[in-house]
Amino acid sequence: MDRMSSSPIWRAVTRNPVSFLTSAAPWRALGYLATSGLLGLLSLIVLGGVVVCGLLLSVAGIGLVVLAGSVLLGIPLAALERRRLRLLEGPHADRPASPHRAVARPGLWPWLTTRLQESATWREFGFAMVFAVLLSVVDLALLTLAGSLVVLIVFPVKVAIVSGQPEALLLTGLGIAVLPVAAYVLGAAAAAQGWFVRLMLAPKEGGQTDRVVELTRSRARMADAFQAERRRIERDLHDGAQQRLVALVMTLGLAEMEFGGTEPKGGRAGELISRARGEAKQALDELRDLVRGIHPQVLTDHGIAAAVSEVAVRCRVPVDVDVELAGRLPTQVEATAYFFISEALTNVVKHSGATSATVRGRLTRDGLSVTVTDNGAGGAELRAGGGLEGLADRVAVVDGRLVLSSPSGGPTALSLEIPCQHSHSVSS
Amino acid sequence: MPAQSLRIVLAEDSALVREGIVELLHKFGHQVVRAVGDADSLITAVRECAPDIVVTDVRMPPGHGDDGLRATTELRKDYPDLPVLVLSQYVANAYAKELFTPSRTPHRQSRAGLGYLLKDRIGELSEFAQAVERVAAGAMVIDPQVVQHILMERDQRHQYQLLSAREQEVLGLMAHGYSNAMVRDALNISDGAVAKHIGNIFAKLGLSPDDGNRRVLAVLAYLRDE
Fold first, then answer.
1. What CATH fold (topology level) applies to the domain B145-225?
2. Interface contact B63, partner A, CB < 8 A
3. Cβ-defined contact of A280 to B123 (cutoff 8 Å)
4. Taking the complete model, does pTM exceed 0.80, yes or no?
5. Was domain A304-419 assigned CATH 3.90.1640.10?
6. Is A321 near chain B, with CB under 8 Å?
7. What ipTM was estimated for this complex?
């Protein structure tokens, strides 16, 4: 109802009579209803034809497809109707946007499945039915009445002139007297129809929310997929290359033993084998670091505190780790917090010139709160394309919030807050 | 050659590594009575074979988490005297702590040997074989790199370096189950120097010197309580 009272044509109708009657509003209403009537008639023919065809063919099965297809006829009609509102409300009125979602993939089939699953499509089909069956008739009836009024005004004039019966002009006067009433009827009818079009064909508020929820979900799904992919790569490396290198180191050890150890017994070959074994071991070490960067198994097995202590040990700047979290958190939250801390410490080492850093993690009433502080030069900022921006993207996925405080001269504190449910039971 | 041939149950999910370990233990005169590829089979194998020692990987099917370690904890509840040597890809001390933290449920304290070695240590064949033998004989063995890691973590927390590089080295060897004489030979230093280093380590850690496993255990207990 709100929308009806805010519609320009309705406001025109409820304005003072003189300005309504002298405005373009009655003519707009007339034009709108006239085109509506004709369009309604056309819709009735097309829709009726398709439905009848579908029913007749339904014996053959294909009719069902035709019937399903008729549902889609509402879509172009609705698009046209949304556009046509401007005829009624003037070129400056805001035209409702399409309530349809964007189709994710190209092609007919994705389009069909998306559209048929949307409530908007069915609302539009419902509108098309009402439009074709009811509105067309009402509009044509109103047009007929308007037409008769014109006849009522014009015909007596002709009679008066041709047959010299001036009393016929009384009828013309009556017609002219009724004109304002007719203008009001047309205006009200058009406003009501415009309101109905908006009601049925404009995007619902809920539809927007749906879309936001949908986007959030798809983003979370994507993050989950990335996470799963990281774990898969980690597993592949662990089961593949890492084991093979262990076996290689072992085989080289056996070879070394066959040669009776290194110098002097093994000679040059023994020495080379020892060196090869050392290099293989080095490769294994490097691979282990790499794998940990991809997805730390410690995080999966023991949680944030254990995984962070390992990162801290490896950090070139001394890090004081103070992470106290009872129990475990959702996987996605743990992974995000872990990468936040690793990234923050990497930044500390790379850019801050700090000589010490602190990682503090606590559970708050709302979720997880982690802060990485350093005693460096400060002046850090969340630049587009910077390392922190990638971090911000990751954090956004879990609805987290990054707060950076880095006055020039330091200290720098980067905080992460992630809302989450946490259990207080300690998992073993 | 060892004094006695050990009957070993081996659990390792990579066939390549499994066969390698079987071969190398055989070379050192031991017998792998059962080699399995997952945590559940490990428990069955121990029940059926009653081995002298279990050598197991941390990460194994079915969970691909720390299933091997958990199977070990499970086994040690039923067989408190069963020595276990765990092979791991992880330096993270959370795993070593998990292994060495005495479980609270058993009524009597386990006295059996325990070991935690990094997997690439297998490449040092004789070192690895010695570790197996020492654990079977009831010793505690921790990979020096893991000990170093624990110490580093501690130092970073306390913002100063507790042990000198040499002392860390000595502690690493002690964690490896070395006696004073073995430390002396390994580092090529005098008996007096060894004694001095060990004295310093224990003084710095606030422990009284003792011998054998108990000092390793003491170090661990100390580090664990931090």
1. Rossmann fold (3.40.50)
2. no
3. yes
4. no
5. no
6. yes
7. 0.76
To the nearest whole Å, the CA of A423 is away from the closest chain B CA by 21
pLDDT classification of A427: cutoffs 50, 70, 90 = very low
| pLDDT 10s digits, A288-331 | 888 887 888 889 888 898 888 888 877 888 888 889 888 888 88
Work out the burial of residue A230: count CB atoms within 10 Å of its CB; fewer than 13 is exposed, 13-18 middle, 19 or more buried.
middle
- Looking at the complex, does the CB of residue A309 fall below 8 Å from at least one CB of chain B? yes
Nearest CA in chain B to A309: B153
B14/A239 touch (CB, cutoff 8 Å), yes or no:
yes
Of 3.10.270.10, 3.40.830.10, 3.40.50.2300, 3.40.640.10, the CATH number of B7-142 is 3.40.50.2300
Who wins on pLDDT, A199 or A422? Answer: A199
Picking from A337, A333, A359, the residue whose alpha carbon sits closest to that of residue A348 is A359
Contact call for A246 and B119, based on CB within 8 A: yes
Asked if the Cβ–Cβ distance from A297 to B59 is below 8 Å, we say: yes
Query: Does A214 have pLDDT greater than 80?
Result: no
Interval B117-163: pLDDT, tens: 988 788 888 889 989 998 998 888 888 778 777 777 766 666 567 78
